Amino acid sequence: MAVLFLLYVVAEVAAVWAVSSVVGVLGTLGLLIAGALLGSWLARREGARAARAFMSAARAGRSPQAEVTDGMLVAFGGVLILVPGFLSDVAGLLLLLPPTRGIVRRAWLRRVEKRTSPRVIVVDSEVVPDDRAHPVIEGR
Q1: pTM score, two decimals?
Q2: Which chain regions cross the lipid bilayer (predicted)?
């Protein structure tokens, strides 16, 4: 896990360095600030939309699994927007946009279902009826 974090930090610094070499320091700061402002506006809008969808699913009496997942992905996208850097901003914006969030949601739910599906164990056995009387039934 520490190696992944270190790789992320190195990639983020490399991305900021590459962008700043093309557009300059002030341009890089402007892009980072613009990404944060756009991301926070989009996170607020999509978070409210996810909350409304959750409430309508709950009122309709259907399972709000997709709506809850969308809300969690919007929250995670908002957190990524707050982390300084271009890679986290791009990942956060992708989670905040409904088409790409739908792709991530479907992939995430498939992975969760695969990891939590019950394992079936088949045992070669014979079913034998239990002829003993049940104590609770006899007591009546």
Answers
A1: 0.72
A2: 72-97
